[in-house]
Design a protein that fits this description.
The complex is a heterodimer of chains A (226) and B (74). Chain A is of the alpha/beta class. In chain A, 35% of the residues lie in helices and 20% in strands. Chain A has eight helices and eight strands. In chain A, helix 2 crosses helix 8. The longest helix of chain A has 19 residues. Chain A is globular. With 74 residues, chain B is mainly beta. Chain B has a single domain, classed as Beta-grasp domain (Ubiquitin-like (UB roll)). In chain B, 11% of the residues lie in helices and 30% in strands. In chain B, strand 3 and strand 4 form a beta hairpin. The chains are: A alpha/beta (226), B mainly beta (74).
Chain lengths: 226, 74
């Protein structure tokens, strides 16, 4: 075991640690959630990360997006994610895709992964990801943030959680009014990564058919069985 | 009949976290929205006793209705 992974070995067995090296995780979105997801997945030693985002960094991202720095404003988020990961853990292979995921490319991009991490900012694309995750039989970890609030759930093929639970057709949420601070993306992304690890090692209780509602304003964390 | 109403995130602003609501006869989640002045478009997730509910679903005495606004950022 390489020295860099020694501190992972007290909670994950050697076999579990090694199994992470064999896995391919897709992170859809390289912004607030995505930056933290990619950073944490890389430090864990996930073997292959695909990072997709069609956007470039903007000054307004500096308040919360881990990969956004004053010297990379205007650069593609996905490409920055690949450069950053190479500095954090060169063992990790990163495929960077500077494009938005849509109906035309979803199947090709999603196929071949073991787990999908949602770091999107709209429901339309989340539903598209869930649709192709279902078709390609890949588990998906959903995360969403808005101001003080966050949500996480884990969706296996056939669960169709997003289609069944979401009312109406709102594509965006209360983040339009509240914005997003530095801490909510880090919190929600961390919980998403813990779900990814448990999916891979097959141990622990997932948020499958359960919805975690996070409220950091009142410090309430509630899991709903759904 | 009495319905327990639980509000989440920004829906709490000016309305509080939780309240018991009295209805003389038929109650639905839509009637709760109307009484609390919550536009239907502001409701993304509606749970009745922890299960996915419909806006026009008849409620029973003692039901708990949990109402969540849309959260979509990343």
């Amino acid at each position: 075991m390489q020295k860099r992974y020694i501190k992972n070995e007290n909670m994950l067995s050697r076999e579990e640690n090694l199994s992470l090296r064999e896995k391919r995780v897709l992170v859809v979105g390289c912004g607030g959630l995505g930056g933290h997801l990619i950073e944490q997945l890389a430090r864990l030693g996930i073997g292959h990360i695909t990072a997709i985002d069609g956007d470039v960094f903007d000054e307004s991202n500096l308040n919360r997006q881990l990969l956004c720095h004053v010297d990379n404003i205007g650069q593609p988020k996905a490409l920055v994610a690949r450069e950053h990961t190479a500095r954090v853990n060169p063992d990790v292979k990163v495929t960077a895709i500077h494009a938005f995921l849509d109906e035309s490319n979803a199947e090709e991009i999603i196929s071949g992964h073991d787990v999908i991490c949602d770091a999107l900012d709209n429901m339309t694309t989340r539903l598209l990801v869930q649709q192709y995750a279902e078709k390609l039989r890949i588990p998906m970890v959903y995360g969403a943030i808005a101001g003080w609030y966050g949500q996480v759930t884990t969706i296996f093929p056939g669960d169709n959680i997003l289609g069944s639970i979401y009312q109406g057709g709102s594509n965006k949420g209360i983040e339009q009014e509240l914005g997003n601070p530095s801490f909510t993306p880090a919190l929600v992304a961390s919980i998403e990564v813990s779900e990814v690890v448990k999916i891979i090692i097959g141990r622990g209780q997932l948020l499958r058919n359960r919805f975690l509602m996070i409220n950091t304003l009142d410090q309430e964390y509630e899991v709903f069985d759904i | 009949m009495q319905i327990k109403v639980r509000l989440f995130a920004t829906l709490r602003e000016g309305r509080g976290k939780e309240q018991m609501m009295d209805f003389a006869d038929i109650a639905t989640p839509q009637a709760i929205f109307d009484r609390l002045d919550i536009p239907s478009a502001d409701v993304a997730i509606l749970l009745i006793n922890g299960f996915d509910g419909k806006f026009d679903q008849p409620l029973k005495d003692g039901d708990t209705v949990s109402i969540f606004p849309p959260v979509g950022g990343g």
